[in-house]
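B., you asked whether I could sanity-check this one before it goes into the benchmark set. Here's the sequence:
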Amino acid sequence: MTSNPPGSPPSIGTAALRLSICIPTYNFGNFIGETLASIVAQLEPGVEVVILDSGSTDETARVVGELQRRHASVRYEYAPERGGIDRDMAKVVELARGEYCWLFSADDIMGDGAIARVLAATSHRDDVLLCMHSTNSLTMELIEPSYPVLASDEPAHFQLGDQRDQIRYFQLAATTEAFFSFIGGLVVRTATWRSVPLDERFVGTCWAHVARLFLIMQSRLSVRFLGQTLLARRGDNDSFATEGVVRRYRLAIVGYLDLGRHFWGEQSPQTFHIRRVLRREFPLGLLLRAKAACMRNPAKEDRSLLDDLAERLYADGSWSCTARLWIYRWFPVAMVSPARSLYRLLRGRSPRLG
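And here's what the prediction gave me:
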């Protein structure tokens, strides 16, 4: 691994570093300049930016290098071979020197004043800080001003090493972002992260960082939900979707259900709520559209895999799950597109359907 190129400014001292903004990246040269501009505009003493470039072949090094020459607090590390997102996240936190690490995607945009708000929240010395994000298009046009994490946007504090508080937290989870899926919403105390090693069993799943925090949660993990939208997430830029939507869905559905079973068991309340949250993120309409995609493009989309995902999502045995699974199995694929168009028409005419 090589680091700061010749001619770059000297590294900043480590004594008073409070926050490392850690960015793993691969071939995001078209976006990382805008991402870094949103960050360096609000840097203050005690904050560094650490970029781990895992073998990029595009303009990433040039874009980062130009910015680095103007900002001593920006560090750039280049690894000649791709490590994969699980290893890259682990490695970039190893490189961090701050008391806290804010994992950040190389194509998202940090909101104004976000760093100051996170620094203020670190004074509570919790293990994890969670924030929200807006959802945007590839060109950063606003789609949704605030993507949900918990059932309420009110700030809250949880001690997840306590069984009752842990169950309460899982009950409040609205999306898998409550379970640390989105790295841009996740600020972790560095010592907490490093208290357990990378679990090789989860490398390649995209969720090794979640497994790390779930393991720590078995004995302790203080989580502070900030209830604030601190960044804009760029959509339609998912490198994991190149092999088809069904395999992309599998990453989240199988990945999280396997995590639940591994840490708490198939029949645990925690796994029940993981399934509930996954059903919200992958509703019946989405599965039916994926089913239609399987019919249109069977070479790319795996129908048997999709059927298995539906079975696992609706495995709770409740009447509502049974009914949705029946609809998934028997709803005519040819009617998916007309039904969706009718729903959109009715939704546009009646706010009550929204």
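One thing to flag: Residues 4-14, 350-354 have pLDDT under 50 and may be disordered. Otherwise nothing jumped out at me.
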